[in-house]
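re: ur question from yesterday

yeah so i grabbed the chain u mentioned. its 127 aa long if i counted rite. heres the sequnce exactly as i have it in my notes:
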Amino acid sequence: MEVRVVDAGGVRYTEVLPGTVSFASEQDALDLVGACAGTLAWAALVHGDALSERFLDLRTGLAGAILQKFVNYRLPVAVLWTGEVPGGRFGEYVRETNRGGHVRLFSDRAAAEAWLAERALTDAPSG
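ran it thru and got these structure tokens back, copy pasting raw so excuse formatting
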């Protein structure tokens, strides 16, 4: 996983560079948590193309397991999705997830950064 730290409008976040990870296991989520801790940028932006087919197939349970890691570690994650969000069950899952406070899907980078700015200020772990 390759990351870079972005400072946008006063908020620092860790961006996972496109094409460097597939989020195909729970370990990928833990690697992102570690990367954020290592960069001291406690919010993340992930590009939609980093989500593996296994992640998108809700029957595997991988999406829920990965997102639960982000919730457990209080890591706000914005997923930047270009193009159409897959329909069906995954589309329903996205709508449900977007109601929560830890992971959201965006089609606009500026909106994703604004949401990360709000979350990074309120959700950074202490200690």
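noticed a couple things. Residues 109-123 form the longest helix (15 residues). also The chain has five helices and five strands.
anyway ttyl
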